[in-house]
Amino acid sequence: MNKQNIYWQLYQDDPILKPGFPSPILADPSFLFPESCPDGLWHLFAHNIFGVLEYVSEDGISWKKKEVYRS
Known about the structure:
Blueprint: E1 27-32, E2 42-48, E3 51-57, E4 64-65
Antiparallel strand pairs: 1-2, 2-3, 3-4
């Protein structure tokens, strides 16, 4: 991937990610490029009032919250 061709566009009316109930915020997103991850997917980390969440994506646009497994 040529990172020089990346540009950002605001999605104010239709954000890529929205905060889930009951948290009113989803803030400070940070992401990893697919070539930096062993699974070849995009990974995005952001926080809400409860903690840090992880999302994964194949294309960097459509994101799914990664399931948290607890023992």
